[in-house]
Amino acid sequence: MAEQTCRPSVVPSPLPDNALLRADRSGEAYADCYVTEVDGAYPLGAFVEAFYTTALFRLERALLAVFLARPSTDSDARQLAQGRSYSFAAWRVEARSEDQLLLADFTGRTKSWLMVASLPSAASEARTRLYFGSAVVHRIHAPSGRSSMGFAFHALLGFHRLYSRLLLRAAGSRLLGSRHAAAPRAGLSAQSRPRR
């Protein structure tokens, strides 16, 4: 229910200067970037796990399992988030740092990128900026030698942009939901401690 009640706003954003996805903006590649901000301090691993275990992304994982025979589980997503796995469903890890993860699909044509950034705040409440971006590499047309994105890319670009926003919003909501769920548990555990 947390994913439905928490609705962080998602907006397009320029890629940060240090983004691992920036290398794919050179030449003929398409790349985009979306950002949202959520209350709380979250490391990259928490964001990655939340992103790939939302109900929306589970649907994509199910489709990949059926149509491409590339199944994955929440446990697989957790292994990826913790840096214990270098592949997940149709993707493999291309690069990783403390705050970023760059994945390439098995064809090498599309890439997905996640990043977290702590936000300075005068208030005591910590906030985290969540980034999600994608890159699509041009395809070379063999007879002519020319590069193009292909008809399917242009036909689905509007859907891709909407889907990217929905994925990031769902991940942000999942993080917020897990944070709110943890707070009552922490209160209960404190109340249940024996008095001395």
Structure notes:
It is a single chain. Strand 5 and strand 6 form a beta hairpin. The protein has five helices and nine strands. The termini are far apart. The protein has helices at residues 2-5, 44-52, 55-68, 74-81, 151-191, and strands spanning 11-12, 30-39, 87-88, 91-96, 100-105, 110-119, 127-136, 139-140, 147-148. It is globular and about 60 Å long. The strands form two sheets. The protein has a seven-stranded antiparallel sheet, covered by helices on one side. A two-stranded antiparallel ribbon has the order 8-9. It has 196 residues and is of the alpha+beta class.
Radius of gyration: 19 Å
Q: For the largest beta sheet, what order do the strands appear in spatially?
A: 1-2-7-6-5-4-3
> Which series of helices and strands comes N to C?
HEEHHHEEEEEEEH
Q: Please tally the β strands and state the result.
A: 9
Structural class: alpha+beta
The major pleated sheet works out as: 7 strands, antiparallel
Mean pLDDT: 84
Strand content is: 25-35%
Estimate the helix proportion, in percent. 25-40%
Number of helices: 5
User: Low-confidence spans: pLDDT under 50, at least 5 residues?
Assistant: 1-5, 188-196
Task: List the SSEs and their pairings.
Blueprint: H1 2-5, E1 11-12, E2 30-39, H2 44-52, H3 55-68, H4 74-81, E3 87-88, E4 91-96, E5 100-105, E6 110-119, E7 127-136, E8 139-140, E9 147-148, H5 151-191
Antiparallel strand pairs: 1-2, 2-7, 3-4, 4-5, 5-6, 6-7, 8-9
Concise account of the structure shown:
The protein is of the alpha+beta class and about 200 residues long. It is built from five helices and nine strands. Strands 1-2-7-6-5-4-3 form a seven-stranded antiparallel sheet, with helices on one face. A two-stranded antiparallel sheet has the order 8-9.
